[in-house]
Automatic annotation (TrEMBL):
UniProt protein name: Uncharacterized protein (TIGR03083 family)
Mycothiol-dependent maleylpyruvate isomerase metal-binding domain ranges (all copies): 19-129
Gene Ontology molecular-function annotations: metal ion binding
InterPro entries registered for this protein in UniProt: DinB/YfiT-like (IPR034660), Maleyloyr_isom (IPR017517), MDMPI_metal-binding (IPR024344)
NCBIfam families according to UniProt: maleylpyruvate isomerase family mycothiol-dependent enzyme (TIGR03083)
Top-level taxon: Bacteria
Length: 215
């Protein structure tokens, strides 16, 4: 049965965001030096190249590619993702860029996922790759809000992202979540918080800031 969020969602709009954000991510990757490709990303153990290859693998996944990584990772989703990402990250940078061109508008999905997962993956991994390099990219606030709703509805139950006890309020779109001391920030920073990342300290304010991750 679809969740209430899934039932109400305009998937054509979501797919439009996915395609645009994949193209934007690929465009930024095309400007990287060899050293930047191999630099650490915001994900421990992942290089920028690993994260980028993982992000564009979403429309290429199928059971026979996912199962070996799941087995090697002991069916731990984070470990399996790292194993698969590092394998894909061994591809030449030009091949990864080619995949961003070929699969920008692809609508194939891994088992048990929706276009919402494709959107969250693309939005968040763009930041995982670019922020440690000192490169900035602003997510569309509406897309980030959709991603945050999905992450709170489904992913938090799996990964346990720590955003309880505060009220998250977006400063650039009509969106809020939770109760408690307020944490106010641009929507993209709130998406990063609800997916277990650190928000940019200079963009977050409110009495609840001490209860969330900032950097």
């Amino acid at each position: 049965m679809p969740t209430r969020l899934e039932a109400a969602m305009d998937y054509e709009k979501v797919w439009g965001f996915v395609a645009a954000e994949r193209r934007a991510f690929g465009g930024m990757l095309a400007a990287l030096s060899e050293e930047e490709w191999l630099a650490p990303s915001a994900c421990p153990g992942w290089t920028v190249k690993d994260v980028s290859a993982h992000a564009i693998a979403h429309p290429q996944h199928h059971l026979r590619t996912l199962l070996p990584a799941m087995i090697r990772g002991g069916f731990d989703l984070n470990k399996a993702g790292l194993i698969d990402g590092q394998r894909r990250g061994r591809a030449p940078a030009d091949e990864i860029l080619r995949q961003f061109e070929v699969y920008a508008e692809a609508r194939r999905l891994p088992p048990m996922t929706t276009p919402l997962e494709a959107l969250v993956d693309t939005l968040v991994h763009t930041q995982d790759a670019m922020r440690p390099l000192g490169r900035s990219y602003d997510m569309p606030p509406d897309a980030a809000a959709i991603g945050a709703d999905r992450s709170l509805a489904k992913h938090q139950k799996i990964f346990g992202y720590p955003v309880a006890g505060v009220r998250l309020v977006a400063s650039d779109v009509d969106w809020s979540h939770g109760s408690g001391p307020e944490v106010r920030a641009p929507m993209q920073e709130l998406l990063l918080l609800v997916t277990g990342r650190a928000a940019a300290a200079d963009l977050v304010e409110g009495d609840g800031v001490g209860s969330v991750r900032v950097a």
